[in-house]
Specification:
Largest sheet: 4 strands, antiparallel
Radius of gyration: 37 Å
Order of helices and strands: EEEEHHHHHHHHHHHHH
Shape: elongated
Distance between the termini: 83 Å
Helix content: 40-55%
Length: 273
């Protein structure tokens, strides 16, 4: 940035409409009488207190917004006042030392500073240093992160695909803590898992207040067969029990019923209803 160039403004500010001799409210001095208009890049009304000769800019309108948003240098240049006056206005409006305009001006100045550029280059070269990262990790281990940091990390990763390495780390972390990811829903208790296969999926869904699809998914995950009521036929019941035991075994492949067995199973289910 050229040192002689005027600071850039973030917003548009215009001279307010007024009548000479009228009374307006200043944010610092209260009700003042407008006496003249300044000859500055942004002309602004000048007022005085009744019965006093001292005159000063009236802090109202767009000037209040500029003091809250713009840098000290920008307000001082466009309204023709000193930096001390702008600082006084900021204190009256309870504006901190760093606002949007000041932050942007400092950032632009830092990019053109040779010393800061050299320091940033050195910092970037040390950012991935294994020893440095290990010290930071050990210092932060066991300390909860602030809520705003967690929200920022979540928003930064939302909608972006995770690598296989990252997904494995997340899985291992949940396994160590015994928790489930946020989208996995309410975790299953041992009592709820014990219901699987002992009654129909619809009954389990009603008792656990879950969807039938969620019950079926958990049953498949735990390799628990579907509940089949006893028909009274010892041969059919023994065949169904053997096939369920084979399906539950993690080492054996999932059995496929033949067309004849599938039709007989359908008849068994239909008769049980």
């Amino acid at each position: 940035m050229n040192a002689e160039a005027p600071p850039a403004l973030l917003g548009e500010y215009r001279t307010p409409l007024f009548i000479y001799g009228s009374s307006v409210k200043c944010r610092i001095r209260g009700q003042v009488i407008v006496t003249k208009l300044t000859d500055t890049p942004i002309p602004w009304p000048v007022g005085k207190l009744p019965g006093c000769r001292a005159r000063a800019l009236v802090l109202f309108g767009d000037l209040v917004d500029a003091v809250r948003r713009e840098s000290v240098a920008a307000v001082a240049y466009y309204w023709g006042v000193t930096a001390q006056t702008v600082t006084k206005w900021r204190k009256a409006l309870r504006v901190g030392a760093l606002n949007e305009g000041t932050t942007r001006l400092k950032s632009a100045s830092a990019k053109e500073s040779p010393g800061i550029a050299k320091a940033l280059l050195k910092a970037k070269s040390k950012a991935r240093d294994p020893e440095r990262r290990q010290k930071i990790a050990e210092a932060r281990r066991g300390k909860p992160r602030p809520i705003h940091v967690i929200e920022a990390m979540r928003n930064g990763r939302a909608g972006k695909p995770q690598s296989d390495d990252t997904r494995n780390k997340i899985r291992d972390a949940h396994l160590r803590r015994g928790t489930l990811p946020q989208k996995a829903g309410r975790p299953w208790t041992e009592q709820e898992q014990a219901m699987l296969g002992q009654m129909s999926d619809t009954e389990v869904a009603q008792k656990t207040k879950r969807k039938v699809s969620a019950v079926i998914a958990m049953r498949y995950r735990l390799r628990i067969g579907k509940y089949l009521p006893l028909t009274g036929n010892n041969e059919t019941d023994a065949t169904s029990s053997a096939k369920l035991d084979q399906w539950r075994s993690p080492k054996s492949p999932t059995p496929r019923l033949s067309r004849r067995e599938s039709s007989s199973a359908h008849v068994v289910r239909k008769s049980s209803r």
